[in-house]
Amino acid sequence: MSLLEVKDISMSYGEKILFEEGSFELYKGEHMGLVGDNGSGKSTLLSILLDKELPDIGSVIWQKNIKIGYIDQYLKSEGNITVYEYLKTSFKELFQLEETLNNLYEELSENYKENLMKEIGDIQDELEYRHFYSIESKIDRIVLGLGINSFGVNTKLENLSGGQQTKVILARLLLEQFDVLLLDEPTNFLDYDHILWLSEYLKEFQGAYIVVSHNLEFLNEITNCILDIEFTKIRKYYGNYERFLKLKEEYRNNYIRNYNSQQEYIKRTESYIRKNKAGVNCKMARGRQKQLDRVERLSKPNSKKKPMITFRQDLAFRKIELMDLEVGYDYSLLPKLNLKLNSGDKIAITGFNGIGKSTLLKTIVGVLDPISGDIVFSKDTKVSYYEQDLNWENQDMNALEIVGLNYPDMKTEEIRRELSKCGIGAEDLTQPIKTLSGGEQSKVKLCIMTLKEANILILDEPTNHLDKDTKISLKEALFNFNGSVIVVSHEKSFYEDLVDKVYAVACNKQQKIKNN
């Protein structure tokens, strides 16, 4: 019996069709990856499964009494509590049982009753059976595995960054005993070591899950089946991501061959009907029309061009030097940093999430003031900066309007062309930015960045949300850029053969920024 049955669901936004008559099932023990191009409808499908959105048609049927875990976009908690207190809420029912047990002990000390002893024994058995006394070690395992210890379990929730909040939400999710997990880009705010840990954890998970991720190495490790959205169709493949790619290539080639064959048949039939609808063969023409009306027409294969990202370059000599630089807010996040970036240098900065990498970049580009020390630019330096957060001043504006606001002298056709180069399809150009997927929004940000003439590019987690083709194009564009590059990234496969040096930052007072 399946845990989930999806029957003939269709979903569209205006003229944009995400998927049509999609059906699939999820069984116990299936570790499913959900894949597709940016904007294909992956996050929308998860929302439909969670009953947060309704499909145009079709049904979603969950097995009764199934516990479903999902990472909410925002951390929800009441009061000014710490990370540890928040994680303990995963075991709220067990702590309530413990409180009942303590009350019974207190009552027993005042008035011995046989029935109290039995009730106490039953609760003790329940707590032991549900591993109540190993809760602390469970929490410690998750805290270490996801790197939460880098900012501390005694930190108040209200003081966490967005990435830290996501880690804590994920930790709480893993601590609860869910039958099914729905995870949308769980690795976005994790470092390389923590992604490896999560990969091992999920492989051991006894329940089922559906994971959306553009980290293909991670996806390959944790999946035993793949759900693919392409050509507005939802199709399930068995095996990991590598096997899926081979099977998909066969399916894609067959689909395109069948589509072209069908188009030829339709063209020939329509031509025959036009020529004979009023002649001696009109009866036969009507018969052909009935046959044509019964044909289940295949959707046109995805015709989106692969992104062709390029950066506008200013070739003047440039450099940045950090001298005893301290960054942070009310207190310093990192030790004093000394770093010189010469003309043409390309470097990656790594380190635990929440340690201060984004704060460092924001300080370098002038969004934040340094606590102390100096940042020295050569006078001809032109910096272009990519911030990882998807923040928009007006979320009702579309991609054309947003790019036009940043570059008012550009004509609409020029903007269309530049957005197309970054992988934004024509159907998404006039949609409100808030309705676009995270990947499509990231492409709009990249487009804005590519239009600025620069000799130093500074990018903070640029691969978050991006599909495979866009990552490849972005990496090629950075490789071909003759200026200097500073990139913060948790994807080793993205930066390792792109940069000249990798710098790891650490928060302990003895360790300075150092070359790996």
Describe the structure.
- It holds the Pfam family ABC_tran_Xtn.
- InterPro entries: AAA+_ATPase, ABC_tran_Xtn, ABC_transporter-like_ATP-bd, ABC_transporter-like_CS, ABCF_ATPase, P-loop_NTPase.
- Keywords: ATP-binding, Coiled coil, Nucleotide-binding.
- Residues 87-114 form a coiled coil.
- One of its GO terms (molecular function) is ATP hydrolysis activity.
- The protein has 3 domains: 1-67 and 178-303, 3-Layer(aba) Sandwich (Rossmann fold), CATH 3.40.50; 78-166, no CATH class; 320-515, P-loop containing nucleotide triphosphate hydrolases (Rossmann fold), CATH 3.40.50.300.
- Mean pLDDT is 89; it is low at 508-516.
- Strands 5-6-7-3-8-9 form a 6-stranded mixed beta sheet, sandwiched between helices. Strands 14-15-16-12-17-18 form a 6-stranded mixed beta sheet, with helices on both faces.
- By secondary structure, the protein is an alpha/beta fold.
- The two termini are 51 Å apart.
- α15 links the parallel β15 and β16 (484-488).
- The protein is built from 16 helices and 18 strands.
CATH class of the largest domain: Alpha Beta
**Biggest pleated-sheet summary:** 6 strands, mixed
The poorly predicted ranges are 508-516
- Per CATH, the superfamily of the largest domain is P-loop containing nucleotide triphosphate hydrolases
Q: How far apart lie the N and C ends?
A: 51 Å
What's the CATH architecture of the largest domain? 3-Layer(aba) Sandwich
